[in-house]
Model the fold of this input.
Amino acid sequence: MAETLLEIRNLHKSFEGVSVLKDVSLSIAQGEVVVIIGPSGCGKSTLLRCINGLEAVDSGEILLRGERISGQKKALHLVRQRIGMVFQSYDLFPHMDVMANLLLGPIKALGKSRREVAEEAERFLVRVGLQDKAHAMPGQLSGGQKQRVALVRAMLMHPEMLLLDEITAALDPEMVREVLNVVLDLARDGVTMAIVTHEMRFAEAVADRVVFLEGGDIVEQAPPEKFFHQPETERAQQFLDTFDYKKS
Ligand SMILES: Nc1ncnc2c1ncn2[C@@H]1O[C@H](COP(=O)(O)OP(=O)(O)OP(=O)(O)O)[C@@H](O)[C@H]1O
Ligand SMILES: [Mg+2]
Done:
């Protein structure tokens, strides 16, 4: 068994008295890809935001390699260096070209040399098919290209794991595939990830394990072949039926 990288123990989170995550416990092993799915409002984004400290937890704890990372306000910047996150909306700095966006974090936060980071950034841009975009401004890129840059930017921080929250949700259909292919490539490379997505075929292809969240509870978790073809709970079955996901 691979080493446990992230451990969430009995996590509770509420907003204005409304319980959004109820006693969620989940471990993610080194190199594992966990896909979190569930209906809108079930707490998926909140769970990811608690993991990297964008939301404070009410109770329970989150450990990274056995080290407590929840409730550590002073060390938040360190947590965010160790856990990369990419969201649905592209958050590149609009006034800086792609390379400048990529160099910023590793130089400022990790103290790396410009040359070292630029070389690595160029290799990553080739890998995601954007070798000719190093000096483009974000406004000149398509949504799919911007998301690939955002993935490269996260990877250049050498995070211990990546959190991806519906990173293709705002994209035109023809751009979804190119972004998901980059994520599949990272998964094959052994990058540990927690991924929230509504792309069920991608979820089945990329996941080592699927976690089905509903109403702030983990209702079911299983390997993808089991979850998508023989879910155990009626709630998971109903959820899958709302997608036009053909059982085969
Ligand atoms: N900052 C906040 N203040 C108040 N309520 C919030 C806040 N953030 C989330 N919520 C509520 O918590 C619940 C879970 O929200 P969350 O964004 O985690 O859902 P989700 O599963 O990511 O949904 P979606 O699939 O639509 O993105 C929702 O009812 C939402 O309204
Ligand atoms: Mg969400």
Q: What stands out?
A: The longest helix spans residues 173-188.
